[in-house]
UniProtKB/TrEMBL annotation:
Family: Belongs to the glycosyltransferase 25 family.
Residue ranges crossing the lipid bilayer per the database entry: none
Domain of life, per lineage: Eukaryota
Pfam families: Anp1
GO molecular function, one term: procollagen galactosyltransferase activity
Organism whose genome encodes this protein: Photinus pyralis
Alphabetic keyword roster: Glycosyltransferase, Signal, Transferase
Name of the protein described by the UniProt record: Glycosyltransferase 25 family member
Leader peptide range in chain numbering: 1-20
Amino acid sequence: MNKIVFLFLFMFSCYEISLSSELKQPTIVIAILIRNKAHTLPYFLSLIENINYPKSRISLLRSDHNIDKSIEILNLWLENVYEQYHSVNTKFSEDKRFDDETGFAHWSTSRFKHVMSMREEALNYARNVWANYILMIDADAFLIDPDVLNSLISKDLTVVSPVLKSVGLYSNFWAAMSSDYYYNRSDDYEPILYRQKEGCFIVPMVHSSVLINLMKEESDHLTYDPGKVPNYDGPVDDIIVFALSANKSGVSLNVCNNKVFGFIMVPLEQDDDLEYDYLQLTNLKLEVLVENEPLR
């Protein structure tokens, strides 16, 4: 049995700035995609809890398609933090894995369509509750900088992602995209990844940890639904649909590397098993230790 989990955190409070006596801090929906990540969740959720941003409420929790103990870990975490947030609404699906899946790590067409639908629903949920921002994040993206949200918000960009490091060259952005909408090598990639040049950079693709400013009018054109993208001719893939919706509506996708914001797991190949993901987590924890505090 497989499941995918979406967790929406709805956070807001107040803070004091020099230009005003007291203003409400922007509202943020945090939409978390979880699929068979029981081994990463303790670290991931601890880092989410440690983000230096006032907690207000957990808005929605929805799940389907997991074979591990992701649900149990989430429930335990929610029991401990429930009162720090406004509300918790859970929907756990017991559906079995998609019929066209061939294995644990297989991203089948049905799975892609399901994830696109869930992300689109999350985006519309945030719009409908008048959230100022939505952070789309996967449960294997570790935000080690507690000020990451404040840092990204301060950029005043419609779409912005923190550059996340991994074991090797993998990250959560592309510096170039091919004519058929897949990854292309670029001379700009490594200098951005390794912070040889610092700042915020326009790129053709961001994923896995994406902050969207819903107060910007142009954000209304962003979508994970290919049917809403004019003349969409790309593959069935949530990150490419989102990227093309931005491209076709003139919304820039940005990555920022002015700080070491966090780390990300390398995706599994189609024939990999869960044990290999455990090994990857061990390797990533060692990578984090090189220049940072350990994942806890």
